[in-house]
Structures are given as C-alpha cells and as structure tokens.
Specification:
Rossmann fold, 7-stranded mixed β-sheet, 2 domains, binds S-adenosylmethionine, VC0802-like
Length: about 375
C-alpha cells in the first residue's frame, strides 16, 4: 500500500479550517439530506470556499464540508445520524485493515464511550455485516488495550464506517446531538398481534421523539386519542396496547383484534371532516394526502384545542421535497404562533418511513 493512501483527509486544513460531516440517510435521499444540512449551516453563517457535498446517489450517506457552522441532528429531517468526520482511508490493505485504522484513531484526542462499526443501509452495505461483526472485537480489544475505549454511553462515540470493505470513514458523534442507535436506526420488531406493519412506524416515532420519562408522562392509561386514517389498525394497536382509548376514523376495515376491541370506537367517516365531541389527548394521522393539506388539518386541531399531542405522517412529493416540507411545517408553525400556542415540533424520516416523514408535535407550557 502507498503511504499516502491512509493519509488523514478530514483533519481540517489551516487555509479554510473546514469541518467535514458524515451524515447517514435513507438511500435515495442523499440530495435532500445534503440540501437540508447546507441550509441549516447557511442560516448561521455564509459557507465560504468549501467543496461541494460528495453525493453518491443511493449510497445512504453524504459528506458535507462546512466552515465553523454547527449542525443540529434534532432539526435535520433527512439525517439519520450526524458524525463529525476526521479521517478517510481508501485502499485498506486486505491483510491488515486494523493498523491504518488504529493509526488514524491515534491521531484523535481523548477517549471514547462507545465504538460503532457501521456500513451503509444498502444491499451492498448489508453484505458487510459479517465482516464488521468479525472486525469489531479486534478493533475493540486493541482500543481497550490502548485505554482509548471506556464504556460510557454519555461520552463521545467513535464511528468506523465502511462504505465498502476497502475503505473506511472515521468520525465521532456527540450523544447529545445524534441518534442513540447504531447506524441511526432504532429497530423495531413486528408484534404478532398488530394488524399491519405500519405499527412499527408509530413504535419507532415514540422511541425517537420521546425519551423514557416523556413516554411515561405523555402516553398514560386512560388517555383518549383519535386516529385519522386508522385502518387496518397498526397505529391504533400501539395506543390500545398502552391502554389508551381510540376513536379510529377510516372508511376501511379495522382488522384482527381491533375489529372488535373494547377500547376502540371505529367511525367510517372522512378524517378531514371529523370533529371530536370533546378534546382528546392525542391525535395520530396516517392519511395519504398532500403534505400541505395534512399540515393544515393538524394545525387546525391544535388551534381549536382539540388535542395536546400529535404524531402524523407527511407524504413526500417526488421533487422539491425539502421545499414541500418547509412549506407544510411552516404552515403549522404559523397557525400555532397566531394562536399564541407554545409547542415542540420535531420531524424525521424514520427507518420505517419510505416516501414520507413523521412529525411529533406537542403543546408545551409557556
Ligand atoms: C397508510 S394507511 C393507514 C395505516 C394505519 N396507520 C395502520 O397502521 O394500519 C392510510 C389509511 O388512510 C385512510 N384514508 C385516506 N384518506 C382518508 C380520509 N379522507 N378519511 C379517512 N381515512 C382516510 C385509508 O382508507 C387508509 O386506510
């Protein structure tokens, strides 16, 4: 191997003091991911003299160069994981991948709380799983012997990301500004009893948007919810599982245990016209329609005081996705601001989302 093939590339140059970021996303959404990150950075300071984002279509990741701007994982919809990139090594020698990686890690300061070996969420990336499983203990043992790895979930994480078997990107993440799960994917298992795979979408949304104490506080037995576009019942199932009463609105049929469930009232009505008789705690909505139409509906529920919390899906158009989301979410913000409502809103393209994103909206105290 040539010595320069393992040369650190992302340590920042004196000339531009660039900071490189490695962002994971759903394959096919690299452009949206980069566009959104650059926009967030530009809102802080103009981006001067940095290279264009390295976008490989369908790769499941992007590398973005910024000046000193910071990125906020919580506010990036298309970014699954946010990593400060330090080194890139191409042409890893097949017989000894470990040494160049250890050399690159040696150049980083401090110790790490967690080591995650990762690969893109693509078919090719999945083929690397056996390799990363075998490689993990080798690297982990070496780093422990050097005193660089200490088990601490709150400390900086070390990411060793293999776009393929012969190259590696090495970076770090801050647990307060990144996803808590390897590859940024909060995995869910399909419950036997749930009537549709969509149930995993709501389960993932609850896990990503709310910490444990918020889940306990906001999803309590005896609460009332409305599920718009409920059939066949995957989202309703997540709520009744938590002993929450649900009014399920859909012209379609509720299936399995939800066809006749003591906590579920099924109404065959239009979800865009339905109005609750009394305010409820939760609104969930998975109706497939224009994002602007769904956003207006959600905003009007909050403005009318019909619910306190909501989780809903916004289907993405084929083009101009970032602009469509901006407009839909901006519309909700305006409706709530006009009413003087305090709120927290977070949107993410979750692992179980395809051409859509999921949004959490909750009223907060003053
Ligand atoms: C993606 S599916 C919902 C799946 C459901 N969340 C689950 O977990 O099983 C969308 C549903 O929205 C319903 N839908 C679409 N437009 C609607 C409307 N205007 N009023 C009520 N339901 C509607 C459809 O009938 C369909 O059942």
């Amino acid at each position: 191997m040539q010595a320069n093939e393992a040369k650190p590339r992302y340590a920042g140059t004196k000339k531009h003091s660039q900071i490189h970021w490695l962002l994971y996303c759903r394959p096919g959404f690299e452009q949206d991911c980069a566009q959104e990150a650059l926009r967030q950075a530009k809102q802080q300071k103009p981006i001067i003299d940095t290279e264009q984002p390295a976008i490989i279509v369908d790769s499941g990741y992007v590398v973005v160069a910024l000046n000193e701007q910071k990125l906020s994982w919580h506010e990036l919809i298309f970014t699954r994981q946010l990593i400060r990139l330090h080194h890139s090594i191409t042409a890893l020698p097949e017989r000894d991948r470990l040494t160049p990686i250890l050399d690159a890690v040696a150049a980083l300061p401090g110790t790490f709380g967690t080591l995650w070996l990762e690969a893109p969420d693509t078919n090719d990336g999945k083929l690397l799983a056996t390799f990363t499983r075998r490689f993990q203990p080798l690297l982990e043992t070496a780093l422990r012997e050097q005193g660089r790895l200490q088990d601490d979930p709150h400390a900086t994480r070390l990411h060793v990301f293999f776009p393929d078997k012969n190259s590696v990107l090495i970076g770090t993440s801050d647990p307060r500004n990144s996803a808590e799960a390897i590859m940024g994917i909060v995995r869910q298992t399909m419950p036997d009893e749930a009537p549709s795979r969509s149930t995993m979408k709501l389960a993932e949304a609850i896990a990503v948007f709310m910490d444990r104490s918020e889940q306990t506080r906001l999803l309590r037995p005896g609460m009332q919810a409305v599920d718009l576009g409920a059939a066949p019942g995957g989202w309703t199932w997540q709520l009744v599982k938590r002993n929450i009463r649900v009014t399920a609105v859909d012209n379609g049929t509720m299936k399995g245990v939800l066809a006749n469930h003591p906590l579920v009232q099924h109404l065959k009505q239009d979800g865009f016209k339905y109005a609750p008789r009394k305010a409820v705690d939760w609104l969930v909505c998975d109706m497939v329609d224009k994002p602007s139409k769904v956003a207006t509906l959600i905003g009007s529920w909050f403005a009318a005081g019909w619910c306190k919390h909501a989780i809903f899906n916004l289907k993405l158009p084929m083009k101009q996705r970032v602009a469509a989301l901006d407009s839909a979410l901006g519309g909700i913000r305006k409706q709530l601001d006009d009413e003087g409502i305090n709120y927290r809103m977070m949107a993410k393209q979750l692992y179980h989302d395809r051409e859509e994103v999921t949004v959490f909206l909750t009223k907060t105290k003053g």
